[in-house]
Specification:
120 residues, mainly alpha, 2 domains, 5 helices, 2 strands, 52% helix
Length: 120
């Protein structure tokens, strides 16, 4: 039968629905994802009855890491050596590339950290 694809924000599930459509697989996405579902007052059930520890959303982690690296590059460039300012330029270039391509290398790297991995 038809599938309901769900993710936290609805963006990845909408992409999955679009990827399945050319193969003739009927699927729908939960608009707004589980965040909108919970904000609408609906309950969420977690496997095993226990919610895993809270982790920041990936977008928030990327914003924090990018901001911290830009500030570090600027401060180190002022205090130690101007070449450290290139770190800030590299992060800015990465953010522009991410926006243009719809990919995010920093999110891939952050996703591999232990606290972002699902427990077995």
């Amino acid at each position: 039968g038809p599938l309901l694809i769900v993710c936290a924000s609805g963006a990845r599930s909408a992409g999955a629905v679009a990827a399945l459509a050319p193969h003739g697989i009927p699927a729908s996405s939960l608009t707004g994802g589980t965040e909108a579902w919970a904000a609408g007052g609906h309950a969420l059930e977690y496997p095993g009855g226990a919610r895993s520890r809270a982790v920041w959303a990936m977008e928030r982690q990327v914003r924090f890491a990018a901001g911290a690296l830009v500030l570090a590059g600027l401060l180190l460039g002022l205090l130690l050596h101007p070449a450290f300012s290139l770190l800030s330029a590299a992060i800015g270039g990465g953010l522009v590339f991410s926006a243009l391509t719809g990919t995010c290398g920093m999110a891939v790297v952050l996703g591999r950290l232990p606290f972002n991995r699902r427990s077995a």
